[in-house]
Design a protein that fits this description.
It contains nine helices and 15 strands. By secondary structure, the protein is α/β, with parallel strands linked by helices. The protein folds into two domains: 118 residues, Rossmann fold (3-Layer(aba) Sandwich), CATH 3.40.50.720; 193 residues, Dihydrodipicolinate Reductase, domain 2 (2-Layer Sandwich), CATH 3.30.360.10. Helix 4 packs parallel to helix 5 and helix 5 runs antiparallel to helix 9. It starts with 7 loop residues before the first strand and ends in a 7-residue tail after the last helix. Bound molecules: NADP nicotinamide-adenine-dinucleotide phosphate (NAP).
């Protein structure tokens, strides 16, 4: 059968939730930094069996109180210090802006708390290395909140590739471009803003995940935004084993938010936005098959489950999102910024 004769079929797949022993006490989570993503995670934590949203902290007590209007939580703090000092908090999710991750994560790790820290873990590899060293020396669980790695659709895509559904991978395409408002703090250098650290980290992580290695050759172009951070970037990766990735990301225009993996015997499209996909479509000479994997909550539940699974098993890092990968990605992004002449004020 040729590609064009294929009938398109669809299948709804259900992911199995991670099941904890119901006798075990729920993990008490604390969230630090109460902005947009914290709301999503509050919903995911509260909706996940075995996890409890116990405490939240903001630099502003008013913001913390406003945040908890529709959220069920026992402790509301107006400083980060109070939350990290709370002996009942088991795991801290850090959700403030990029430039604040280092100090906040350091403070939490120094208090012996397990930490899940938003991406990018830090603004550069030196900071990441220091935090990783603290976590490892103190034997504490630490993970970058790269939720994409736990996405059921993308894990299905990986499975299909390893089963040979599209043959050998030749090319990966991914775009993550959205238009940030002119006054967004994500456009500001002082906060570690710019397309690379905010959005580019997803297509970069995706490509390296699919190939299973960091690239051997990198070419890139960057157009600066009016605020001096990287605004519109394109990056090409090449591997000695023949794979290539063409990635784009930007904060000045809306892009396709799509991803595709092309192989010798077919290709797989990821439903946009690719980093939070709820389905994929496999095209090969046997079939065109859409696979739908809708989120149980909002997509963040899978990283919450991964943290619980690791803590239950006594692991200090996630095998799916290991710290060495976070560090190598930070180094790769440092390299790109250095090529583009972009330094953050605190560097
Ligand atoms: N995983 C994902 O899908 C996803 C999506 C969006 C963002 N993120 C990541 O999550 C983190 C937070 O993003 P967000 O969109 O939630 O950010 P946000 O709403 O702009 O801000 C989050 C928090 O950062 C602090 N903050 C923000 N602007 C500040 C300023 N001008 N001065 C001092 N502190 C400021 C505040 O913490 P306090 O409340 O303590 O004052 C605020 O509540 C970032 O690392 C981002 O890359 C991840």
């Amino acid at each position: 059968m040729s590609f064009s004769e294929n009938t398109r079929i669809g299948e709804l797949l259900n992911e199995q939730a991670y099941k904890r022993d119901s006798q075990k006490q729920a993990y008490k989570w604390g969230i630090i930094g109460l902005g947009g993503i914290a709301k999503q995670m509050a919903e995911a934590i509260s909706g996940t069996m075995g996890s409890e949203l116990y405490a939240v902290a903001s630099k502003s007590l008013d913001r913390a109180r406003t945040f908890t209007k529709n959220v069920d939580v026992q402790k509301v703090y107006g400083s980060y210090e109070e939350l990290v000092d709370d002996p009942d908090v088991d795991v801290i999710y850090i959700a403030n802006i990029h430039s604040q991750h280092f100090e906040t994560a350091k403070m939490a790790l120094m208090k012996g708390k397990a930490v899940l820290c938003e991406k990018p873990l830090t603004i550069n590899a030196n900071q990441a290395e220091e935090l990783i060293s603290i976590a490892q020396k103190s034997n504490i669980f630490f993970m970058e909140a790269m939720w994409m790695k736990f996405n059921p659709s993308l894990n299905k895509l990986k499975e299909l590739i390893s089963e040979g559904s599209i043959g050998k991978v030749l090319k990966i395409e991914a775009d993550f471009s959205i238009e940030f408002p002119p006054d967004s703090n994500r456009r500001l250098s002082e906060f570690g803003g710019g397309a690379l650290l905010d959005l580019g980290i997803y297509p970069i992580t995706f490509a390296n995940w699919i190939v299973g290695r960091f690239p051997d050759n990198i070419k890139s172009k960057c157009i600066l935004a009016s605020t001096g951070v990287d605004g519109l970037d394109s990056v090409t990766f090449e591997w000695k084993t023949g794979e290539k990735a063409e990635l784009s990301f930007g904060i000045d225009r809306l892009g396709t938010l799509s991803a595709k993996v092309l192989g010798t015997d077919g290709y797989i499209e990821v439903f946009p936005p690719f980093h939070g996909a709820q389905g994929i479509c496999l095209h090969n000479s046997q079939e065109v098959k859409e696979l739908y994997l809708p989120f149980r909550i909002n997509g963040y539940e899978y990283e919450v489950e991964e943290v619980m699974r690791c803590l239950d098993m006594g692991l200090k890092e996630s095998p799916k999102m290991p710290l060495i990968e976070t560090l190598e990605t930070m180094k790769l992004m440092d390299g790109l910024r250095s090529e583009w002449g972009i330094l953050f004020p605190c560097e």
